Task: inverse folding
């Protein structure tokens, strides 16, 4: 049995590649079942966010190349086009990688807390799909506990650094006084909620929330004294927006060049600052070509984010020590499963010998044999049968010069030679 993690993230692949291999909520269950049925995979979890797509697997016959081809084929991409961006972690490296991901040490924003919720959601989805068993179930629970310890025992989360925070920080560089600006937030998920919170803390003048489900937009907008609209109403309200920040799960863009061009005319070419956090992208790339539009993607935010990371570097080093310890703990548990199976087999064999000896002893008693003689028979039979095979193997080891086996037996049986 083996354990591996295969995937790509913001450090290995540009957004143009990442957006082609995302797993939206509408396809991920089918993908998990397809993956598990592809052969050799006993358990699987798919983690898909704007910055990463990763597959975690446990099974008898895991073939990384076949797994990479499955990922490419599922998304209709040539394997040779995808392969250069993929990374592979196996056994303890795979364990430590997940622990780092869940703890925010592998994120675009070091220590960001949203990733833990995304890892939990990936585990819950796979559990509901029936693709999580004893090993990945234990591994993901272990990652949750590790992430909690990292956040509790280090200062990794003390500074308000996130993609959402970076987007708001950048908007402050463009508009010095946010109290006069209107922000249009597209989507109603965790990232948009965090963005709205940061905007409110920075004194934003007005917030408009657009979402496919208007009721969810209303729910979020009410928290920040905002106004809710549907996605279809965006063209009518876009001219009001000085800041547009978008993060939806839409597989296609929700904002096109023509709509933005029309809004700019109505604004008399007053500039619009846009941040597209989504993968796949929500805003057509061609919008960047328009004058008076400042369009940034998640990749463009990296420079802004780096400026806010210095205070987290020391905490990250402390967190790495926790990861090493917790990774070793999980691998020790995983290795112990082999011993558990061996112990169960050995006990089963001993129990069979016991039952056979007991049956013979009872027959002797029924036939009138003296109890003392039966007890002696039972003790001798159990001793001889239980020691016969180990004794034969030790004699063979001695005659063959296998000293390491003799030393192992001495340790195993705690013998005083």
Result:
């Amino acid at each position: 049995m083996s354990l591996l993690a295969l995937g790509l993230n913001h450090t290995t692949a540009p957004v143009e590649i990442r957006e082609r291999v995302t797993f939206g909520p509408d396809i991920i269950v089918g993908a998990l079942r397809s993956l598990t049925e592809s052969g050799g995979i006993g358990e699987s979890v798919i983690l898909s966010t704007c910055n990463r797509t990763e597959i975690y697997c446990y099974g008898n016959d895991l073939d990384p190349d076949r797994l990479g081809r499955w990922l490419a084929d599922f998304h209709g991409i040539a394997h040779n086009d995808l392969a250069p961006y993929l990374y592979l972690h196996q056994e303890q490296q795979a364990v430590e990688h997940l622990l780092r991901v869940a703890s925010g040490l592998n994120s675009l924003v070091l220590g960001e807390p949203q990733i833990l919720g995304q890892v939990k959601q990936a585990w819950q989805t796979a559990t509901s799909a029936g693709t999580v068993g004893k090993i990945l179930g234990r591994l993901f629970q272990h990652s949750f506990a590790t992430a909690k310890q990292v956040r509790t025992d280090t200062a990794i989360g003390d500074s308000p650094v996130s993609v959402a925070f970076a987007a708001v920080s950048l908007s402050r560089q463009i508009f010095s006084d946010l109290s006069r600006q209107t922000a249009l937030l597209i989507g109603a998920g965790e990232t948009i909620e965090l963005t709205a919170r940061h905007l409110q803390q920075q004194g934003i003048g007005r917030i408009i929330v657009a979402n496919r489900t208007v009721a969810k937009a209303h729910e979020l907008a009410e928290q920040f004294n905002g106004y809710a609209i549907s996605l279809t109403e965006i063209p009518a309200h876009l001219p009001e927006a000085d800041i547009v920040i978008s993060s939806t799960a839409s597989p296609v863009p929700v904002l096109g060049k023509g709509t933005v061009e029309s809004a700019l005319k109505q604004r008399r070419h007053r500039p619009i600052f846009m941040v597209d956090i989504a993968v796949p992208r929500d805003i057509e790339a061609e919008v960047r070509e328009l004058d008076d539009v400042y369009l940034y993607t998640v990749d463009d935010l990296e420079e802004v984010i780096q400026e806010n990371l210095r205070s987290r570097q020391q905490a990250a080093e402390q967190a790495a020590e926790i990861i090493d310890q917790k990774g070793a703990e999980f691998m020790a548990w995983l290795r112990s499963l082999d011993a558990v199976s061996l112990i169960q087999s050995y006990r089963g064999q001993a129990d069979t010998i016991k039952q056979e000896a007991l049956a013979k002893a009872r027959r002797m008693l029924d036939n009138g044999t003296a109890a003392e003689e039966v007890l002696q028979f039972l003790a001798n039979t159990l001793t001889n049968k239980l020691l016969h095979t180990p004794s034969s193997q030790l004699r063979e080891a001695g005659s063959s010069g296998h000293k390491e086996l003799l030393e192992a037996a001495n340790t195993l049986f705690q013998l005083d030679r």
Summary: The mean pLDDT is 90.
